Amino acid sequence: MVIKTLIEVLKTIDGVIVVNVQDRKTYPNIEFTISSSLSRLLFVECTEASNIHLNSWINFSVCDKEALENPDLGITYSFRNKNIEVFKDLGSFFVWRLHALGKMQEQQADKYLLIFNGTTIKEKKQLNLWKESSQLPR
Length: 138
Hints:
The protein is built from six helices and four strands; from the N terminus they run H-E-E-H-E-H-E-H-H-H. It has helices spanning about 1-10, 35-50, 65-70, 85-100, 105-115, 120-135, and strands spanning about 15-20, 30-35, 55-60, 75-80. It has a four-stranded antiparallel β-sheet. Helix 2 (about 35-50) packs across helix 4 (about 85-100). The termini are far apart.
């Protein structure tokens, strides 16, 4: 369920093409390409924030005709981990960022967040307000 939901979230991001999914109990794997520079930045931000490292490889030589026609599809990214909680964290970061960027409505974000971490946008905002107010100097 978590992997399928993460794939749904990835497909909502501009320029992301999911190439391969191996939804197994041990070491699930997701492979994808990203043809949008802004989406690459989003991926870097979310993976850095959740301390996740993606594997990547070059699909074809820069001299190939295919590379000249589709340079953005020349790199495939892969993410594999034995711990499903890591996939949940990654999914949560993507949903939060997409919502903050206005690319995902609150109702849709809540649907995904309930699967990834059992919370909603409103609950998280209230929690953050409480944390901020409890850290004010007295």
